[in-house]
Amino acid sequence: MTQQFPPFLIEGYRNFMSGRYATESQRYRKLADEGQKPTTMVIACCDSRAAPETIFDAGPGQLFVLRNVANLVPPFGPDAAYHGTSSAIEFAIIHLKVENIVVMGHGRCGGIAGALATAAGHAPEGAFIGKWLTMIEEVAGKVEANSLLTSSEQQTALERIVIRQSIGNLMTFPFVKERVEAGALSLHGAWFDISSGELWTMNGESGDFMRPEL
Amino acid sequence: MTQQFPPFLIEGYRNFMSGRYATESQRYRKLADEGQKPTTMVIACCDSRAAPETIFDAGPGQLFVLRNVANLVPPFGPDAAYHGTSSAIEFAIIHLKVENIVVMGHGRCGGIAGALATAAGHAPEGAFIGKWLTMIEEVAGKVEANSLLTSSEQQTALERIVIRQSIGNLMTFPFVKERVEAGALSLHGAWFDISSGELWTMNGESGDFMRPEL
Amino acid sequence: MTQQFPPFLIEGYRNFMSGRYATESQRYRKLADEGQKPTTMVIACCDSRAAPETIFDAGPGQLFVLRNVANLVPPFGPDAAYHGTSSAIEFAIIHLKVENIVVMGHGRCGGIAGALATAAGHAPEGAFIGKWLTMIEEVAGKVEANSLLTSSEQQTALERIVIRQSIGNLMTFPFVKERVEAGALSLHGAWFDISSGELWTMNGESGDFMRPEL
Amino acid sequence: MTQQFPPFLIEGYRNFMSGRYATESQRYRKLADEGQKPTTMVIACCDSRAAPETIFDAGPGQLFVLRNVANLVPPFGPDAAYHGTSSAIEFAIIHLKVENIVVMGHGRCGGIAGALATAAGHAPEGAFIGKWLTMIEEVAGKVEANSLLTSSEQQTALERIVIRQSIGNLMTFPFVKERVEAGALSLHGAWFDISSGELWTMNGESGDFMRPEL
């Protein structure tokens, strides 16, 4: 633990200070004094290629962001265990009173690939990740069983199915359901194609993913 | 759920496409083809004012990012429950073979404030968040009991103590400890001051936070 | 006692005469003729790295400066003993009618370190200094007992607590309290970071130290 | 206590940061890392017109400075009371191992004037200052009784007598006497004329004050 702080991070921080921070110092100071008031929570993947702030060109104070492997939302189930994802959702809804929750998946997701591999009998190494992916093992099994789809098509299909499942699970949280029904909160899906840079947004009625009008 | 996708996100995405993506499309294409190979995992808070990619001016492929409330790492404890944080750590270490893990906290953290409020007898609303913060209730209680510190000083002290605790908990993961001892992985702490934009990095020996030479 | 006057002081004095004095001789002459009328008293530490005139770039006549080990103000307690600090405060208030008193502490203070060492069972050598530091032994003991803080964090915390204590003790002097309540005198805290050169000023309401807008 | 920090101090600090600190930041950083190692202690008056760092053009780390009213050193007398001056002397000798102690007085000293006024039956207001000046009441009485001297000559005479008395009292401290006799410490006197800017240094043999060769 006596290692030097990674130099590329110090270099990047220097760019931040001379760049974004230099031009937005008043905004940071205001956000510090008045507290954060983001209107939107994003539930995204840890993947290094799909940072929400980058894809949505978001500035400080705009997005409250929960990131876990494969952007999964477990079903509502308070018990004696720690629930990092549910805690963040609760905090965003009850304390920050966000108006939007966006579940954002992406192409080439390692977690999704792991779930398909598990369904095919080749579970990735790791006890935690194995247990974590059981949340989507049922849908992964169904997709993997469909041999009409290429493996690449299976991957994209499961990525989108998982976004729909996460949104469905969000509705099992009483405090989410209540606010959605009262019109105070809306739930959205998005899928990012790392290769082409394309963003696809989900139609809330049909669950289809389409490229939005720009 | 038939709401329009938040227009400010579409607007931001449009900026991304004409800006960063336009100049880095080759990099995105390469990252899609070859897969992500980040050298560094960042464990950060969901706070909208402290996105790691922004603070470290990081591009696509650089940072594998787990974000939860108050950047907490639970102690190693595989069981029947879902472990989002532990899963991401396991994925980063075993599958991505990252060389650095940075636990980044920040000033004015709502989760830390909640832990101090709980210690003072005013627990914030919410069952999940309440349970989640029990991970730091012992240290929060000790800090809150020190009435010589102002409430703001208690907050900063606990933010830094929690970073040290998260790093300590990382070392309870056998696959982390083994790699750290083999020199293949190093653990770092960082604390970001939202108001001033200052980054403080942790000295691995003493645990102190200091401003790095820029 | 027949030693030569330290040559570096003669050299420095020569610089003073050809520099500051040469350009400000009228000011010195006026200050000699009319007497001093400083608006501000500074209570600071003897430390060679934290001279108030240097840090505040103050010219002749501006600051009435009391310096002792660790910038301590004892509680009001007139008795048969000599009270150097209380005498200076009394002189500044009653005779000079200063409008501000600034208690200025600093990082890496040897007196504060001595108080923490004493609390840890390693009192520094010296009967006078030992007795002097009993003024802060209670707060030093509380800070030292908090093992969640690194020793460097304990040091900074105690430095700031001691500034607050000194200001609190100032208010036990009837002639201070009366003038503060009448709006004729204000009390301030400041903390100087030797390493970075940063000045932090105390918020009179909360007691927090913050970097002032420059 | 909710007053604004005195603006002229913030302004002065800004000058310090853009001036001295900007050109000496390495020195400050080094002094912070390695600790202070001043070779010289100065015992001076609180007077706003006679700051040692200014008169000796001293930089950070050079002078360990005790300032009280009229630069008095009480005779050695450890007891149950707080001794700010003796503590600073002890700290300088035992912990910092300084090689020189300079007692610096100055013209138009308010404390010296107060002692002469007391001897003439017009004691200045203030219980602490009254007690403090009893340290020099005997010599003040003798000077005041000499009606052959003008009041201005009495003032200068007492200022210099008090410097000699302070140096004499220093020699009553066993740890001072021992080091002086061992050649490890030397004691010096100096007197600063505020009006003309002249520095007079004391001859250790005769006690006379003379202007040094520049």
Automatic annotation (TrEMBL), chains A, B, C, D:
UniProt-listed Enzyme Commission number(s): 4.2.1.1
Top-level taxon: Bacteria
Textual note on the cofactor: Binds 1 zinc ion per subunit.
Organism in which the protein naturally occurs: Pelagibacterium halotolerans (strain DSM 22347 / JCM 15775 / CGMCC 1.7692 / B2)
InterPro entries the record matches: Beta_CA_cladeB (IPR045066), Carbonic_anhydrase (IPR001765), Carbonic_anhydrase_CS (IPR015892), Carbonic_anhydrase_sf (IPR036874)
Enzyme class: lyase
SMART domains for this protein: Pro_CA
A Pfam family per the record: Pro_CA
Designated name of the protein: Carbonic anhydrase
Entries under CDD domains matching the protein: beta_CA_cladeB
UniProt entry keywords in alphabetical sequence: Lyase, Metal-binding, Zinc
GO molecular function: carbonate dehydratase activity; zinc ion binding
Residues binding Zn(2+): 45, 47, 106, 109
Job of this protein: Reversible hydration of carbon dioxide.
Cofactor(s) of this protein: Zn(2+)
PROSITE patterns listed in its UniProt record: PROK_CO2_ANHYDRASE_2
Taxonomic placement: Bacteria, Pseudomonadati, Pseudomonadota, Alphaproteobacteria, Hyphomicrobiales
Catalytic activity: hydrogencarbonate + H(+) = CO2 + H2O
Protein family (similarity comment): Belongs to the beta-class carbonic anhydrase family.
GO BP, sorted A to Z: carbon utilization
